[in-house]
Amino acid sequence: MWSTAREIAEGDLVIVWMTRDLVQPLAISSGKELNTRFGVYRHAELIGVPYGSKIGSRNGKGFIHLLRPTPELWTLALPHRTQILYLADIAFITSWLDIKPGSHVIEAGTGSGSFSHSTARTVGPTGHLWSYEFHEARANKAREEFSSHGMDEIVTLTHRNVCKEGFTVVDTVDSVFLDLPAPWDAVEHAKKALRKDRATRICCFSPCMEQVQRTIIALNDAGFTEITMYETLIRPHQVDVTPPLPTVSTIGNQLKEMEARREAKRLRQIANSRSRGDKRKREETEDSAEDQSAEKRHADEVDGSGKRHVEQTP
Ligand code: SAH
């Protein structure tokens, strides 16, 4: 599908890996520059570099990895025109639909082509994928991408409304995958496209239970059997370093130290309140002694009529 050469060449599609959450496709065209927050890179300088290389920016402030595209990386990097299918669903659906090298498969709609790239790689040149999309601009963009990714031989993209007009092949495919808002309207058409000489499979991908219920009714009416419903969830685990648990004796010592600190504080508080009490008593005693001597002085100054003596100097 993509370049299999060891080194990057003019016109190649490269996946630029900056961080886990920042992955972007890059079509190599000498004369252009890649401007990222991890530095500026001239395309011309990337030509001849082996796929998988880590490249430092010109000012030495950052670096990027240049990876060979795969469907998995394309799903992370592709320009979104619609909601897309991710690894967990794609892998599960591929497995349950028994899609393998040489399989003949239908998908509708094409959307952003995430499922298409994975399926094209799986079926390979001995198989075929018929992809249908009723949004014209999306169909054209996907056709362009399939072509530039070297998938022309493996994928046939048709611009049409499959719910109204059905599919372009009859009694041909091993499996049908429907990622449409109203898959129930395409179930009878899918039945016609599926081959009749062996057991075949259909998968309808819907986010809402109401859609699932309507699809199940349509599948039952069309005579499909062994109908089941699954939800796929992927849960990445984050690994953190946790310190080892303390021993019982360490915890015992910590408790003892805490208890000792509490006791010392209690004793300090008692001592403080005692010394405050003593000080207050001392002050009260001093105050009353002062009061008494003041009273005495006052009495000396006042005569029997209660009037103050005015000492007159001659
Ligand atoms: N599985 C795709 C995403 C599909 S999004 C991916 O992994 O990238 C659903 C697409 O179905 C949309 O692009 C929408 O335009 C198309 N669609 C909706 N109804 C349709 C119909 N009746 N016929 C064909 N395409 C249809």
What does this structure look like?
Residues 303-314 have low confidence and may be disordered. Among the domains are: 13-69, Roll (Vcp-like ATPase, Chain A, domain 2), CATH 3.10.330.20; 74-222, Rossmann fold (3-Layer(aba) Sandwich), CATH 3.40.50.150. The protein has helices at residues 43-46, 71-77, 87-96, 114-123, 136-148, 162-165, 187-193, 209-221, 248-301; strands at residues 13-19, 22-27, 33-36, 39-42, 54-56, 63-67, 104-108, 128-133, 155-159, 175-178, 201-204. The radius of gyration is 42 Å and the shape is elongated. Helix 2 packs antiparallel against helix 4. By secondary structure, the chain is α/β, with parallel strands linked by helices. A five-stranded parallel β-sheet has the order 9-8-7-10-11, covered by helices on one side. A four-stranded antiparallel β-sheet has the order 2-1-6-5, covered by helices on one side. The site of S-adenosyl-L-homocysteine (SAH) has 22 residues, from helix 4, strand 8 and helix 6. This is tRNA (adenine(58)-N(1))-methyltransferase catalytic subunit TRM61. Its EC number is 2.1.1.220. It is an enzyme of class 2 (transferase). Residues 62-284 form the tRNA (adenine(58)-N(1))-methyltransferase catalytic subunit TRM61 C-terminal domain. Keywords: Methyltransferase, Nucleus, S-adenosyl-L-methionine, Transferase, tRNA processing.
